[in-house]
Design goal:
Distance between the termini: 37 Å
Strand content: 5-15%
Number of strands: 4
Structural class: alpha+beta
Shape: elongated
């Protein structure tokens, strides 16, 4: 399902993406039940305000709203390229870079939407520096 403008998808915090949680039944025993927060989907879609809070807490969005029709250009294309590269290597990244990737990308996108190119470029520079540890990777977007 496609996201609408202003909507972000995150792993459900309650079930940690599993779609189910343990509850205490009426018999006093633990039972698995569908997560009420994500309705068993394992992820939740939230608005920009909730997304900003989640990103500030270190969560990385699984998907971000479509912005190609809102803003496009070489800087946005390069930003997407670096973000996609880093997301594919998220598990290999060392903290705190792996935590800050989503925050930097979301901030840069917001700045591009507000036609503030310089702050967006600063966050993209952060993504480029974070990607430097993978400089030898065949998919590395920059010069090798």
């Amino acid at each position: 399902m496609a996201l609408v403008a202003g909507e972000y998808e995150f792993t459900c915090s309650e079930c940690r993406g599993d779609g189910s949680v343990q509850i205490v039944g009426t018999d006093g025993e633990l039972h698995w039940d569908r997560c009420d927060d994500c309705f068993g989907a394992g992820s939740v879609c939230v608005d920009e305000e909730d997304a900003a809070e989640r990103i500030d807490l270190g969560q990385t969005p699984l998907r971000t709203p479509p912005t190609s029709e809102l803003h496009s250009g070489p800087l946005k294309d390069e930003l997407d390229q670096w973000f996609d590269f880093l997301c594919a290597r998220k598990e290999e990244s060392s903290p705190p870079a792996n935590i800050m990737i989503g925050y930097a990308y979301g901030f840069a996108e917001a700045m591009l939407l507000a036609d503030r190119e310089e702050p967006a470029r600063e966050k993209m520079d952060f993504l480029i520096r974070a990607a430097e540890e993978f400089k030898g990777h065949p998919d590395f977007p920059g010069r090798q």
